[in-house]
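Practice record 12: protein with zinc ion.
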Amino acid sequence: MRSEGAGSLASLRELNRRRLVDELRRLGLASRAELARRTGLSRSTVSSLVTDLQSDGLVVEREIDGAGPQGGRPPVLLSLERSAGAALGLDFGKRHIRVIVTDLAHAVLADLERPIDTEHAAAEGLEAAAELVDQALIEANVERGHVIGAGMGLPGPIDSQTGEVGSSAILPGWIGVRPQQAMQELLAIPVRVENDANLGALAELTWGAGQATEDFFYVKLASGIGGGVVVNGQLYRGAGGIAGEIGHSLVDERGPVCRCGNRGCLESVASTRAIVDLLRPAHGDDLTIEQVIAHAHAGDLASRRVIGDAARALGVVLAHVCNIMNPAKVVVGGDLGAAGAVLLDPLRDQVARHAVPPAAGRVEIVPGVLGRRAEVLGAAALVLRDVEGFALAPAGNAGNRKIV
Ligand SMILES: [Zn+2]
């Protein structure tokens, strides 16, 4: 009987140790107090488990500059040790492929980008990405066996039943391809695919404007418009992975025809493509959204007006989002996110006008902080945060130490 009791105590300790490692992997850096709060374990249990993990070489203390939130000495923060594993993020854009390598403390070890032809075939894109992964692993000094998984971002919808790229994808050469399966075979690493807006939300949650925010909505304003929903500190995908797709919400029944086949979708009036198209007659056919933003900041009335109109259309849709999910923040990312007050002021006015006052009063509308890195960081965050989907490397890969 005594040995049985001792056995269950040991397995409880193993379980708690695993919870602590999982939580550290999600957070990257955390104090003992925060780990206790998040796992529900007592501070003394956390301290004793951390001591064990430190002596096993799995957890290290990190020196952080600056004072703590209440002034005084900064708290000692913990993270998983470099040898515990690494994560890969891959981002396929219309004109580029980007790869990053991070450790499980959420530090970026390598970040490489290469241009690619817009009309590339899927096989070509996948092979170019695999080569870039090889280079990035060398630069990061990480062995392939240490990588616990790869997240992959595509700028289009993935059918959650078949795993295929849908027909309305922005990448025409990828239609009918199963990117997750194909990439996994090429890399020999577990791969998970996610759309770009959801990855932006995950990146802002992990490194950016959504840090320490349990409930927020991320909107990506680029040549398409997408959204990502974070609820209780987790990405919420909905029944079929479509949650947050505000780009095709109706804003003008008689508006322009949208690529989805409908009329007057938000995307057809407020995407960067729609904005640039409206201004080309005045500014020339080579106009880019970066130039539109620069013109607006320099006081060009037409550019300010067109961005303001896009913000007002977006604000009506975001007011509905605020009524439905009551987020603490709306984080505005994508190319247009860099426009600043010329976009955000009319957006805030519109949300204040159309959302119910308790929801409008609660929400902070802020720019995303990760810019063009948001998607590739989000792809790595997919691996870092999904402790069930991507197991830590077996003990053999981290010397003879026991991971959990
Ligand atoms: Zn549409």
